[in-house]
Specification:
transferase, GntR family transcriptional regulator, about 45% helix, Aspartate Aminotransferase, domain 1, about 15% strand, 15 helices, alpha/beta, pyridoxal phosphate binding, Aspartate Aminotransferase, domain 2, binds pyridoxal-5'-phosphate
Amino acid sequence: MNGSESDDLDHLFSETVRETMDGSVYGAWRSIRDAEAVPLSFGFPYPESFPNGELVSAAESLFEYEGDRALQYGGGEYADTLPEVIAEQARDRGIDCTTAQIHLTNGATNAIDTVCQTFLDPGDAVFVEAPTFMGALRLFRNYDVDVEGCEMDTEGLDVAALADELAAREAAGAALPKLLYTVPNFHNPTGVTLSADRRRRLCELAETYDFLVLEDDPYGQLRYEGAEPPPIRALDDAGRVIRANTFSKTIAPGVRTGWIIAEESFVEQFDRINAGGEPSYTRGLIARYAEDGRLDRAIEELRAGYSERRDRMLESLAERMPPGTWWSEPEGGFFVWVEFPEGVDAEAMLPAAIDEGVTYLPGSFFYADDGGTRNARLSFSHASPAEIDEGIAALATAVRAETPALEADD
Ligand SMILES: Cc1ncc(COP(=O)(O)O)c(C=O)c1O
């Protein structure tokens, strides 16, 4: 059957799919992906960071030790130990955590989806940072909820503005959020980190206004400088913070393994809702790989590789970008957020930038509503340091071509 015939079956899609399927953003995403240019667009790890050889050895020793149990339903002993590996990591970061408070997922995306399935009804209000992770926005759209963007600044979510908004909503009898989704460390897309004081205040607001906080922290262990604020979950006395995490950035996205840390009563529901899809072999493999401090050593190496790339991007931006350009200076993670000079539309400029030899993601992709027209997310995670420099040079050329008046003043 060819494509045009299958279009006739569109009426069989659910109402939510029919309402969201046009996906213009996805079309733009495609063209960026296919471009032959320095990829500063995607938050992919750089390929040499993958522990191919180590995973092969871990697989061999897993089969040696477990035999056929490694591939059986439920997996062998190593699969069972993964929650303890995760709980130990969490305790090291100040989170009081038992294995009964852990639900394993197929990555952080699946963790967010599981939280949505468990808590959200159509019409619920969900607060997100503006801008926020595109993947989360896409998931929230599937649940027919009202997504509301909250202001941010260089210290992350503007919690004082959030407090005002909540008070105003309460006074007006308007809907309060059921869930607030945040990426507190090296935020995607802006790279900024939520300050410790704001984390505390956020927990208080969740308590006062009766909502849950979903703390999505894929980048927290990839810190290249500065002190780490406590995870929001570590500051939560009321059980309202649900923490999502993943091995996508510390091992590889292809292992598709993540987890949720939350109250035991929540975990019981996550387990019930998601039963049957566990990739137990992969879980055993990760537990075997992580043994003897190997994962910690790998994270140290990743920090070196990424911080070199970040430094190169920041140096290159400082050297090459025209006046009137601002960018964030992340202490970790994968992303730098750029604000171009007045008059530049990042989405409109993208084809010219691709012709010059660089791709980026326009800021507008990261907003539930309008916003980010002058912004772009640049990822330093995938390209080599030399390519990053080349990409920023191409970007600077594209921006200068858009701002001839500024050049005249320069
Ligand atoms: C904030 C955030 N959450 C979740 C994900 C996806 O993680 P996973 O690959 O584990 O689904 C990403 C990765 O791009 C991310 O930046």
